[in-house]
Amino acid sequence: MASASTNDIEFRSVTKNYGAVTAVTDINLTVPKGAFLALLGPSGCGKTTCLRMIGGFEQPSAGSVLIDGREMNGVPAYRRPVNMVFQHYALFPHFNVEQNVAYGLKQMRPRIAAKEIDRRVAEALEMVRLGGFAKRRIHEMSGGQQQRVALARAIVNRPSVLLLDEPLAALDKKLRSAMQIELQTLQRDLGITFVLVTHDQEEALSMADVVCVMSAGRIRQLGSPQEVYDRPADLFVADFVGKTNRITASMEADGTTLRLADGSAIASGKKLESGNVIAALRPEAIHLTRKAAAGTSFKGTVTHRIFLGSSAEYAVSVPGLGDFLITADRRSMNESDLVEPGEEVFLGFDPAAIHVFPASNA
Fold it and tell me: What share of the chain is helix, strand, coil (3-state, %, to 5)?
């Protein structure tokens, strides 16, 4: 088969069974060359199974996996143009940094000259900003440094695709944020395809340029981070990617008017058949004020507040509608700094910010 000119990875009607359990069902997916793809979903959704089928650690029960236009079914992991960074790094503790990075090169046949191995190891270490650490023992490295050693070992073989199996899960929040930036920079510098598996929505949205949201072995939505967050395909995606307020409502016969449980009506930007629906509204799309403002507004009482520094999260109970979560940027609040629990407030929002889904989609 001729090499594909635009896609590095393709799944063609791929299904994976483990005995009576189906982990992945009829997946069709194309990953463009040089893309940073995040496979995002809860535990057991099939994302790691997909990653392992790309890497050659698992074979599909049906369908085909292609890399650079070539079918990989039956091709062992060591013969694929991919490398993998595992969650726990899998570094050799009895080797130093240089020896860990060089290990894969020394296994290649025909053999690579020692000087060439030294040059490529030094180049890889410089790329991950570990140029002065070649002789350091693994136990002497911090978690972030060990992660970079694992990255250097993966990229030194110059793979077409780099697979990342939740590589930041063991890091603290501050270091994880720093490594997210480093991975993005490294991917741009290398120009190769990265495939990241994660259950962390923030990680997927901040790092990837293509997000694949999965559930129960199927793809629920594939698109840019902005598309997935701002235009969720269904209620599962709206709930899983970010935070969402659910409002039970019914769509009236005109197909554009939402009737809420308290009897109020809202114009919907999405036309649906009449019947029961779920309206989804992001916490940051709601404006919290002490005075009623023009437009759509609900009156409620603050029950809880979580201080987050530059912002605060509020839980507000609205009679007849239930509890709402609101994220308020402190700099946007003109009346005072913070609202206290027990205060009465008004929640305003643009009806265009509401996403409406059939109740059967819940």
Answer: 30, 35, 35
Identify the burial level of 247 via C-beta atoms within 10 angstroms of its C-beta, where 0-12 means exposed, 13-18 middle and 19 or more buried. Answer: buried
Which region, left, alpha or beta, applies to residue 43 given φ > 0 means left and ψ of -120 to 50 means alpha? beta
For the CA atoms of 316, 317, 323, 326, the dihedral, rounded to the nearest 10 degrees, stands at -10
**Residue range 79-124, pLDDT digits in tens:** 999 999 887 778 999 999 999 999 989 988 889 999 999 999 999 9
Question: In whole numbers, what is the pLDDT of the chain averaged over residues?
Answer: 89
What contacts 207, CB < 8 A, 6 or more positions away?
A: 36, 38, 180, 183, 184, 196
DSSP state of 112: P
Q: Are 55 and 10 within 8 A, CB to CB?
A: no
Structural domains in the chain, CATH included, are: 7-237 (3.40.50.300), 243-361 (2.40.50.140)
Fill in the amino acid letter for 146.
Answer: Q
The b/e string for 154-164 (b: 16+ C-beta within 10 A; e otherwise) is: bbbbebebbbb
- The residue among 172, 181, 135 whose CA lies nearest residue 36 is 181
For residue 182, the model assigns a pLDDT of 83
How much is the pLDDT for 58? 96
Kindly give the parts of the chain with pLDDT less than 70.
Answer: 1-6, 269-270, 294-295, 330-337, 361-362
For the purposes of burial, counting CB atoms within 10 Å of the CB of 213, is it exposed (0-12), middle (13-18) or buried (19 or more)? buried
Distance between CA atoms of residues 202 and 200, nearest Å: 6
